[in-house]
């Protein structure tokens, strides 16, 4: 027998079954603990070339020096780090001061995997977002009254008014079903937000968002509506509402009791304030059908009440707010503000810049404090389109805004709470090497095709298998694109929210209460207690040492 034919036969006879056995071993051992997982690697690796297992090498986020790598291999490094953390914890003292100021940061759709992936995006697994150093952390259960998975509307109602509601409704109890105007207009079904409680005590209030200021999250502060999509009168009539009965959200912001008293309103959504025939500063037309110019109405109210005010529409104006301004309306885009990666940094401010400007207006000497809502609103929208790059970048921007707020406020008298309204379906898969770019590959499927670190359970990133039934695998040049829509298991026009709990982080007065697993609607009650604005919970005003 020819020697070549002999070896070929040997391969077919033995190697192929061994390879199958190894594939099986890999699949079974993936559920076992670390030690057993090594087995197939030990016995089977000779069958595979490295590129089979990691077909496309991942970029490293921050290559470590030889010295750093050696340090992490020692006991001392990890033990010292742990002891330092314990020492920090032992130094922590509970803060029983009354919260003069409260800043509530809401990362829309900021799920736990989003936070973990953003750490890697920001430079490595060991990085922390600004709020991850806060002393107290809890979990929030986000379901709403009629749905297992929340949307931003019922969720905003829960964390801003303290009462859970139905999907798609804002600032009303669950006695109001979607699109029911009659029920929404009944006073007993309407809920006061935490901002309203601050206003009743003569304290300042404001909101900052990267979405339209009439979008679900900010609307939770000032609106009562049976449909979150009724942002303008035109929306009401096109979405089966009665314009004579169902007041639109923009109108409520300018004419409603709570909206009218907001000292700061910063975000996008200018079109909802202008009639169709009016062209705004950037050349876009308004969308209102009732002919009302709500920006002019807002100004008229300030003048009638002798209030100092400013209406602004670009970054320059925001960075040069006059000192004595008590009321600030800033509308920086016709619709939502642009994603940070796509914004014109000359004309559109960052979330961090808006947050700082808002605090300057709210934090007046001799005032009795303020409540500010800051929303990183486009994390959610990026996830809906499975644009993972943008979702993580928006989360990093959100973190910068929190960092700035921490720097310019005082922990003794300012409670800062950071949370999300609901999760998303993006998952973070193993086992990429330490330091790998999170926009990379995690490993091989049993079909011997690579899979990415980030994937979505559903969404527009779904691609069917090819004609041979081969699973879709993105190429490295695809996943480097910021606009790349990450793979999804089930096809959907827009990816859905996730039902998993979201995290709550707190620092400042009474932050030690924001721990454990809580219903989402508990959050504003805790804030009320900390700031002593509640009518339900008794609290004693404590003098703060801070000015
Ligand atoms: Zn959403």
Automatic annotation (TrEMBL):
Leader sequence segment: 1-22
GO MF term list: alkaline phosphatase activity; metal ion binding
Cofactor, how bound (note): Binds 1 Mg(2+) ion. Binds 2 Zn(2+) ions.
Chief location category: membrane
Residues binding Zn(2+): 108, 380, 384, 421-422, 497
GO cellular component: plasma membrane; side of membrane
Cofactor section: Mg(2+); Zn(2+)
SMART domains linked to this entry: alkPPc (SM00098)
Enzyme Commission identifier(s): 3.1.3.1
Entries under CDD domains matching the protein: ALP (cd16012)
Cellular localisation: Cell membrane
Membrane topology, as annotated: Lipid-anchor; GPI-anchor
Residues noted as binding Mg(2+) in the record, renumbered to the chain: 108, 215, 217, 375
PANTHER family: ALKALINE PHOSPHATASE (PTHR11596), ALKALINE PHOSPHATASE-RELATED (PTHR11596:SF91)
Family recorded in the similarity comment: Belongs to the alkaline phosphatase family.
Name of this chain's protein: alkaline phosphatase
Organism of origin: Hypothenemus hampei
């Amino acid at each position: 027998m020819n020697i070549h034919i002999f070896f070929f036969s040997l391969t077919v006879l033995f190697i192929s079954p061994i390879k199958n056995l190894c594939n099986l071993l890999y699949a079974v051992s993936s559920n076992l603990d670390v030690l057993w997982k090594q087995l197939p690697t030990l016995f089977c690796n000779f069958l595979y070339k490295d590129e089979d297992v990691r077909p496309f090498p991942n970029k490293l986020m921050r290559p470590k020096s030889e010295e750093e790598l050696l340090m992490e291999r020692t006991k001392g490094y990890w033990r010292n780090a742990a002891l330092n953390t314990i020492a920090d914890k032992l130094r922590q003292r509970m803060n029983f001061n009354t919260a003069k100021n409260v800043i509530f940061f809401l990362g829309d759709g900021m799920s736990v995997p989003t936070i973990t992936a953003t750490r890697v995006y920001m430079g490595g697994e060991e990085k922390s977002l600004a709020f991850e150093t806060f002393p107290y952390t809890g979990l929030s259960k986000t379901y709403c009254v009629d749905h297992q998975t929340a949307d931003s509307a019922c969720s905003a109602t829960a964390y801003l008014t303290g009462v859970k509601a139905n999907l798609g409704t804002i600032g009303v109890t669950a006695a109001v079903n979607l699109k029911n105007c009659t029920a929404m207009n009944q006073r007993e079904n309407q809920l006061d937000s935490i901002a309203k409680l601050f206003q009743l005590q003569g304290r300042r209030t404001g909101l900052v968002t990267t979405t339209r200021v009439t979008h679900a999250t900010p609307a939770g502060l000032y609106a009562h509506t049976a449909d979150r999509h009724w942002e303008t009168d035109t929306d009401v009539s096109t979405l089966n509402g009665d314009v004579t009965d169902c007041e639109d959200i923009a109108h409520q912001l300018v004419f409603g009791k709570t909206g009218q008293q907001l000292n700061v309103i910063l975000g996008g959504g200018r079109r909802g304030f202008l009639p169709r025939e009016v062209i705004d500063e950037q050349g876009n037309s308004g969308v209102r059908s009732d002919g009302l110019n709500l920006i002019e109405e807002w100004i008229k109210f300030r003048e009638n009440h002798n209030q100092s005010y400013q209406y602004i529409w670009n970054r320059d104006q925001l960075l040069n707010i006059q000192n004595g301004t008590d009321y600030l309306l800033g509308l920086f885009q016709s619709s939502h503000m642009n994603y940070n990666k796509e914004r014109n940094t000359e004309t559109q401010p960052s979330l961090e810049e808006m947050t700082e400007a808002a605090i300057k207006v709210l934090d007046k000497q001799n005032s009795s404090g303020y409540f500010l809502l800051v929303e990183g609103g486009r994390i959610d929208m990026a996830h809906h389109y499975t644009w993972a790059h943008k979702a993580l970048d928006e989360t990093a921007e959100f973190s910068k805004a929190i960092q700035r707020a921490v720097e310019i406020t005082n922990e003794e008298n300012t409670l800062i709470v950071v949370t999300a309204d609901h999760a998303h379906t993006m998952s973070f898969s193993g086992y990429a090497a330490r330091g790998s770019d999170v926009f990379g590959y995690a490993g091989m499927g049993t079909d011997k095709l690579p899979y990415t670190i980030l994937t979505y359970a559903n969404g527009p990133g779904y691609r069917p298998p090819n004609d041979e039934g081969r699973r879709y695998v993105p190429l490295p040049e695809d996943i480097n694109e910021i606009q790349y829509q990450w793979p999804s298991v089930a096809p959907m026009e827009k990816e859905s929210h996730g039902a998993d709990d979201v995290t709550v982080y707190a620092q400042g007065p009474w932050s030690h209460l924001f721990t454990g697993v809580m219903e989402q609607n508990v959050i504003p009650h805790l804030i009320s207690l900390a700031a002593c604005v509640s009518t339900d919970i008794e609290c004693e005003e404590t003098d703060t040492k801070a000015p």
